[in-house]
Each structure stands twice: as structure tokens, then as C-alpha cells.
Amino acid sequence: MDNLSQRDGFMGQKMIVLPDSLKKRFRENPIIQNFHLTDIGYFPRAMRHKRTREHGSDEYIFMYCVEGEGWYQSEGERHHIGPNQFLIIPKNTPHTYGSALDNPWSLYWIHFKGTLAGNLYKRYTDLEHTVVSIPYQSRRVEQFKNIYSTLTQSYLTPPLEYVNLSTLSFISLFVYDHIAQKDAPEEIEDIVESIIVFLEANLERPLKTDDITKEFNYSASYIFSIFKKRTGYSLINYFNLKKIQKACEYLQYSDLNIKEISYKMGFQDPLYFSRSFKKHMGMSPKKYKLNV
């Protein structure tokens, strides 16, 4: 019997439990019968989240913590789980897990099964640690969102095949990360991903070079160099592009005028904002607003 402290009610949660009829289609489909998901979800800041399965689960369970903390216990061992850490719980193994009371986790999770699923789990056990740390990369979260979104839109066979193959790719990004990292310059991927997250979280601020160098404790020349090599954009050009893309949303979906949007996006000079907007979008903010 499964014991559950709280499964539903986390603000902003996303969860899909697939019906048996769909799972049957997966098992009969030669493309995905060896690897397919059965449940998928995201629990943000999951206060009092706790789950006990006295007899384990019929599926493997992938869990990825992006913030906060939690724990996992099985076969008499208890493991701490923190930000940028993941684990895979083996099927048919009694276990309990839960979020920390004072700092609840935000958790992406997927239940999956199939012959290939078992082989992938065995490769995961080669990593030697039950809970594995991994550098943050925004593309992982974006891939999860794509899988979830596709699954909500169609139950036709080709999209479902795409979802399951993408899920295999998604979990493989974690299991084989140590190999992928060998091909990348040391720490560069992680640093650039962190800079991108920082920039996108501060689009409404007029950030200066000093703000970024202090945040990451690297010289300006080093940050500018690795950012350009990784993205193809100069850091300032990328930041302004993201500001302009956000401004497009305000022009389309809000009643703010162009001057107000300019200030809101951290441009102190509306004329400079208009020139930047035209540079990136090929038209003035006024013309863009008339066309959308």
C-alpha cells in the first residue's frame, strides 16, 4: 500500500498520469515498447510532500531537484537531495522520499518502464552515487517542458512516439552527463548557462558589467569571451535582444505605452530603446504594436 502525505495542491504543479489504454498502446508500439513513460510531473516548492511505497513501484522513477531540499530513503539508507541533483529509483524496491520542511524542493519527475529502461538504470548505477550532482543547464528544463507540452496536446501515435523518444533522450542527458562534459571546456557550459539564467531573471534592470562580474566572480574579459564562443552573441547584444523580446510581449499583451515599456525594460532613454528595437525587430515599436 502507498502512503501519501500530500500529492496534490502544490501551487503551480503540473502532473499527467497516463491511462492504461495509452500504456497498452506504448507496449504494442515497436518504436517505443522498450522505453516509455507512464507518469510525468513538476512540483514547485512542494511543502509537506512525502511518499512511501511499501512494495515499491512497477516503474523506474526519475527525480530531478532544481531548488530547495529533500531526502530519499531505501533499504535502510537515507540520502539528502539538493539543488541540481538527481536520482533514479529502481522498480519494485520499497522506498520513501519527501521534501524538507524548512526548504521544500522543486522537483521534476518521470515514471518510466520497458526493457531499455532497465538497461538505462544499470548504466545509472555505474555512477557510484545514489544521488548525483549535475551542472545546471537550462536546455534540460526546456526539454522537459517540451515533453510535457506535447503530451497535453495530442494522443496521436507520431507525437506520442516523439514524447517517449524525447524522454529517453532527456534522462540520458543526466545519466551520460559525465561523458558529455569531457567534450566541453572545463566549467564553461555551466558558467554560460548560469549567466543566461541571471540575465533573463533581470531583464527589467539596467545591468552593468560590474553587476555581472561581481555575480560570477570572473573578469569581464573572460565572461565576454566564453559567452560569445558559446552563444554567438556578445553579452550586451544578447541581453538587449532578450529585453526587446520581452518588450514585444508588453506591446502585444499590455496597455503600457512605448515610453512606459522602455523604462520598464531598463532603458533610461526611450529613443535608444526605439533604435535597439528596430535593430532587432526590423521595425519601430510603434509599427510593431500596430501590426500585432
Could you explain how this protein is built, in words?
Helix 3 packs antiparallel against helix 4 and helix 6 packs across helix 8 (220-231). 47% of the residues lie in helices and 20% in strands. A six-stranded antiparallel sheet has the order 2-3-10-5-8-11. Strands 1-4-9-6-7 form a five-stranded antiparallel sheet, with no helix packed on it. It is globular and about 65 Å long. The protein has two domains: 2-181, Sandwich (Jelly Rolls); 188-291, Arc Repressor Mutant, subunit A (Orthogonal Bundle). By secondary structure, it is an alpha+beta fold. The model is unreliable at 1-8 (pLDDT under 50). The relative contact order is 0.10. InterPro entries: AraC-bd, Homeodomain-like_sf, HTH-like, HTH_AraC, HTH_AraC-typ_CS, Tscrpt_reg_AraC-type_HTH. It comes from Sediminicola luteus.
Radius of gyration in whole Å, from Cα?
22 Å
Would you list the SSEs in sequence order as H and E?
EEHEEEEEEEEHEHHHHHHHHHH
Q: What's the CATH class of the largest domain, please? A: Mainly Beta
Number of helices: 12
* Overall geometry: globular
Low-confidence stretches: 1-8
- Can you identify the CATH superfamily of the largest domain? Regulatory protein AraC
